[in-house]
Structure formats: C-alpha cells, structure tokens
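User: Sequence for ATP-grasp domain-containing protein below. Tokens please.
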Amino acid sequence: MPLPRLSSPAHRLLRALAPPRRALPATSAPLALGFASAASTPRLAVAAPLRAAVPADQRDLGMEAGEQGRPLRVGLVCGGPSAERGVSLNSARSVLDHIQGEDLVVSCYYIDSGMNAFAISPAQLYSNTPSDFDFKLESLARGFHSLSDFGEHLATNVDIVFPVIHGKFGEDGGIQELLEEAKVPFVGTPSKECQHAFDKHSASLELDTQGFLTVPNFLVEKDKLVMPELEAWFQTVNLSKENGKVIVKPTRAGSSIGVVVAYGVNDAAQKAEEIISEGIDDKVIIEVFLEEGTEFTAIVVDVGIANNSEPVVLLPTEVELQRSSSSDTKEDTIFNYRTKYLPSRQVAYHTPPRFPAEVIDCIRQGLSLLFRRLGLHDFARIDGWFLPSPVSSLPSAENSEKFGNTKYGAVLFTDINLISGMEQTSFLFQQASAVGFSHSRILRTVIQHACSRFPSLVPCNNAWTALSRKLQSSKQAEAIHKGTSKQKVFVIFGGDTSERQVSLMSGTNVWLNLQGFDDLDVTPCLLAPANGYFSSHDQDFSCISREVWTLPYSLVLRHTTEEVYAACVEASEPERVEVTSRLREQVMNELGPALSKHDWFAGFDIAYEEPVKYSLQQWINHVKESGAVVFIAVHGGIGEDGTIQTLLESAGVPYTGPGPIASRTCMNKVATSLAVDHLTSYGVRTIPKDARATEEVLKSSLVDIWNELIAKLKTETVCVKPARDGCSTGVARLCCPKDLEVYANALRSKFQRLPANCLSRAHGVIEMPVPPPESLIFEPFIETDEIIISNKLENGSARHLVWKGENDWLEITVGVVGKRGEMHSLNPSITVKESGDILSLEEKFQGGTGINLTPPPATIMSEDALQRCKKSIEIMANSLGLEGFSRIDAFVNVRSGEVLLIEVNTVPGMTPSTVLIHQVSLLV
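Assistant: Structure tokens for ATP-grasp domain-containing protein:
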C-alpha cells in the first residue's frame, strides 16, 4: 500500500475529473465537482475551479516533527546549461509527482542556462519548457548571488539533494563538486568518478584498460585536428577514406545531443568541427558506425549496505530502430534526441531484449562489473551494442581475451548516463516495473540507499523510516475502519489515429496521477488498433470488432501504442513469456535478499499480471458491471467523434468530457465553425474555409486548385490541414503551387512525415496522416507577431520578452472546465513557435519542447483584453455544448480581446507538459 501523496497540480486536475466517493484529502486544492442533469447519463462535469489557500511552507513540517519521526527534506535540482534542460524539467516533474508525500517534503530548484540558481515553486515544473518561465525568474523566483551561496542554502534547508540535471554540470561532476564543497549529501556518483565516466573518450580508455571490448574511436580536440592522423585511423579500422560510415558526437554531452552520421574522412572532420564551432563541446569523438549491431540500454541499481557496492542490473531493453524504405526522409537511422523523446514508430523497445540468454547474462554481468570498477553510486543507465557477427573494425586477435565475447557475438558498452532520464515512461521505470517496483518505490529506494551512504544522515534516515511506518500503519487502520470500497476508474487510451502516441502519453499520465488517491481503483486500458493494424480512419471499421485490453502496470510503460499492443500479444507467446519470466525471477532473486537487509525497504509493490482482452462491447459491459467511470483519453477517431460517448451513454456508463453531439460537432472543423458562426457580436469570429476531398486534390491540376484557393480565400498564403485529425498532424503553411505539389506528393506517397524545410518557408518536421485523410481543409494563413525570448545580455540584464507589436493577432490555447452551460475559461497560454509558422507535434506534446506564456504577459495583453477574451471563450464553449473539460485553440486580438477560432479539442492532450495542466497549476 503506497504512502499518501501531497497533491500536485496534475493530481488535483485529474482527480477532479473522476467522481469522488469521499472528500478529497485536506492537502488538495480541488476543483468543484458536478454531474450532468439526471435526465441524461451522468457524464462528469467540472465546475469553475475554486481558489484555495496556499499550503503552509512544508519545510516547517520537517523542522518541527521531533526525533520520533520527521519527513525527509529533499532538494530537487533541475535545469542546467545543456540542450537537455527541457528533459531535465520532465524528469524533475516526474520525480516530484512520485516521491512527495506526508513523509517526504520536496523543495524545487532550477539552474538556468547562465548557471544562475533559483528556488522555484512546484507549479513551474509543470511548464512545457524552461523557456516558459526563464524570462520571469529574476522577478518572481528567489535567486542566489552565486552557486556557492546556493550550496550554503542547501546545507541548511534540505537533508539530501536529488540532482536531475542531464548533461553538462549535472553528469560531468559539476553539481556534485558544488555539493561536496558545501558538505551536502546527494543522490548519485561523486564528482571525480562523474568526470571520468561522463567523458566518452576517457570512459572508453578506462573500459579498455579494465578489459572490456570498446568501439574504436578517434578524438578531435578544438584547433588540434590533424587530417593525416584521421586518415590513418580510418585505414586502421578498415574504413574507406572516401565514404566509410562513422558516428560523430561530443565527448561531454548527453547520449543524444549533437550525434550525427558522417561518410568518409572529410565529412567526419567537417561535422566534428561543426559540433565544436556550435559550442556543444570542445572535444569530439569519431566512432565506427556499428552497422549490423543492435543497441541496448540497462538500468543498474546499487542495493548494497552503506558504501559496499552491490549493483544489480535490471532487465535490459533492446532499442530497435525502424529503417524506413520510403524516401520521405534522408535522415540516417540513429537513436537521436527526437527518436528518444518523441514517441513515434521510428523506434521500438523490447524489454528484455530478443538476444540469446547467454548474451543477456553477459550484458548484466558486464554492467555490474563496470558499475563497481568505475566507482558509480546509487543508480545509472548504461548503453551498449550487441554485434551478432564479426566486425572488421574490431581486430579479433587483440580483443579475444576481453570481456564481451560470446559464442553469439560481441557485447560492447558505450555511453554511461549518471543521471538517467526519469520521464514517466523512461527506461528506469520500464525496467523497474518489470521486476516489482512502482515509480514511487524505485525512486524512494534510490533515495534511501543514497541516505544510507552518508553517516550524517543515519539519524535522519531512521526518523524518516519511523515516520513512514507510522503513516503506513495509520493508513492501513483507516482503510480497515472505512472499508475497502473504492470508486473504479477505467482510463482508455490508444486507438489508431495519428494522435495515438499522444493518447498513450495522456492516458499514462492520467492513470499514474489518479493512482495517488486512496479512494480510486484505476485500471489502464488500451483501445487496440482496428483489425490489428494502425490507420487514421477508425470510422471505416465496425466498432463491434474493436478490442480493448486491460493492462498490468509494467505494460503501460511503453513509448508507443504499437509497443503496448505488441506486448499484449506477446504475453500469450509461450517462448517469450518463458524468457521474460526466467529473467524477472533471476533479477528479483538478486534484489530481494540484498534489499531485505535494509530496515527501510518496504518490499516490492507491483505484482506480475497478465493483460486481458475484451471486445469493445464486452469491455463496456465489464465497466458497467464494475460500477466504474470511464476516463476518455483517446484522441481523435472514435474517442473524439462521439462514437465511444454514444456507446457508453447507451449502456448508462458515466464518462469524462462532452457528450456525443458536442464531440461529433467539434471533431469536424467545418461543422465547428458553422456552430459558432452566429457569435460575431460576442467577439467570436471564424476563419473562412474551403473543404475538398483529398482524392479530388490528388487528381486535379494543382496550379488550378492553387489559383482557386487564393481567389476564394482572398489570401496569398494558405494553411492546409486534415478535416478530421489532430491539431498538429498534417498542418502546413503553403506559399505557392510548388508547396501544394510537395504536400500532395507526401499524401500520395503516404509519407509518415515531411522533413524540415522542404517547403518554401522554413519549418520543422511535419507529421503526416497515414493513410491520407478523406478530406482536407484550406484556410487563409493568419499572420501573427513574432515573440522572442532574449538571451541574458552581457551587461547582466535579465532575459526578457521581445515583441514589436506590429500585428495585433497572436495564437493562444486555453482550457475550459465546468458544467454544461457554465463553462469556465482558464488563463490562456500564448503559444510561441520555435521552428516555423505552424506549431509542430514536438512543440505541442514533446516535453521540454515548445514555449507557452501563461498567462499572457501584461506587456502584450492588457487585463481588460484578457477578460474579454476569456468571456468570449466561455460563450463559445457554452454554445458548443461543452462540459467537463476541453481545449480551444484560437487567435486573439491582443488589443480588443476578440477571438478567431482555430479548433476545439473535446479530448485535449493530458500529457505531463501540456498547457491544460500548467494552466490549472497556476490557480493555486
């Protein structure tokens, strides 16, 4: 039974959307709840959010609780100067959600790109990117004069620091050295060991010295590249000097930052110099490209007593990169930043790997040995490669005695990640859940092990353990007294639309957050693809034939819906089940005896379960028999067009969000515009539209179509989008007939994406709907003013917004919550585009990417205009019959507050970094 959590903004919002059987905990700041009228099925609706008093400073609780038990005070430090600071924010948010509780109090800190430290509120962690609040830090957050002052503050205000800074300063020994000098205990590896392990070149040399197989590499230092030496290295490793394939990457950056493929000596030298000139690092390594190899990654957790290291390697994960045969992209297939952090079909993961048992045993034994020999502490993630066949660049005679040789091929270890990514579905949680750890339990295990290494923390750790047990006993007694009745909630996500990966992120976030409430019994469910494959046309298949799987904990934690579905099917394959079961038992047998020696270990809290398959109708019957409510997190398709809503309503099953009519209307962008066309006098306008069948566009003269569009829409540039698809999928700005030709060819060829900058104006990668949509909508492109967040100036002045104010229109997104007819507008977020004219999928949903200014700064939009805007949004929401919660995208005139509707999402994104949660977080 998990310990009670303190409510985060995500907990409060998502809990408010599920029906309570009991009052919310006193620590919550709930949204007022209501139901639809008794005349209809009880759909959940949320009334206007109520402002709550800000809780007393939780740090006081830690100082006054006494010796018999007190909360542990953890300092969570995120940010940093590297390009991975957005990922760091995601990790910090996830850690905060899963460790905070009555027995553990978290204080949040942020280090900006200029290496300035700030104490920030937990609400800031729910921003999409650090740029959302960077420019406000010096006026709204508590700053420290220097990093040494920051260290002194930590020494007196926290018991232990959990650094979640990825890359530079976080993993290179920087923050560790700062904490060591301030005598502040911290989670993770000491500074000297970090310095050696993080530097890819020095780590490779050390691994070679320690007797491990390594990938041949060549070091390039700033202003020290000698071309004849590089040419000689190419010859040594049997690569062609003209086109030999290599990987070029910084030696001291995250495992995905700045990693590129090069061909031949000249290309490799040029790309190495580019990495250096861009300031990513002043040292670069060139490695042999392991063409036939398969990448893997594994989490290592130390379960030893005090400083007696006893590392246990969890179930490794195989990284399968999808080598597309289509010509929609010229990018080489590597595990880069985008494939790692934006769920897509470009990469698939398999836990455990599909390697021979001897190879997996070699990986686990080698990583345990490596962890010890490099002096790592608490936990780490280590990447490597399995090469099933001999590689000419690895001389067999020289390496025959090194660790990593098996009869099936060679195992090599490459990147060492000293602070593993901790997003909700990261490798840490995937692998830990497979052997019995929930998110909370694995994080607390890591923290408690770190505490046990510091003699000064022994009394504190004992007091924390005492309080945890006391709370646990009290909670169990209360559960017995009140009975075991809980409100059941089934969270459904997935489907087969182009938004299915966002749906998985939304559903996972909802499920994990609702689990934090004792009176809810939450079950995650996957809406499987129609007929076992993925398309963008749910409506083409009979709903009766659709499948829904109820999922065990570990199967949810995948990066794509394809992986979740494959794992469900795989669970019935005897051979694969036997391998996974054997490895799980092996790992747990290593973990259990070691952890049982620690007084603080409360045991494993995730039991192994099988997924269960239902037809959609069987699942609805099961939900009804369980007396459950359905939390709909299926974006697009039958999840958002009124189909699921109709089926649930017919069965008398309560569910979240708007009803069938409003859902059906808002799914169709043309119908949405027509439904609000009469609201002009209320400050609501719509954008002119030209809807055309995709087949017609592909068969007609594109020049003729272009001329018709610009004449009818009275515009010079056009915005094209699918008529019934996601808010980012297939949306592009077209400036000439050639752009329309490129877009049409992508649809005709069923490209999964348009590469960046293939249209006439600069843009980011555009995810395309596959197969093509039945119809397209063309609109005038609305010009908005550019907003820039400046860098800190040399004279020391703070980062600030730069807005010329030449155009009165800006793009916003705003959440609406409440009962039908009483919808309440949250504070809008101004969306700032980073990669072109259209918000990309990354900017919408990939955590750490895309800037949102919430609420609109007063320097851009006056309070009067803001209130008029919110009033117009509420009128629009009520006119459309929305209820529960939805999201409206629009343009707003910052002078008048007039609103120009883009679209309405009745099942909005609920990922950890979406604006809906951030907008709610700012209410309290």
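The chain has a mean pLDDT of 85.
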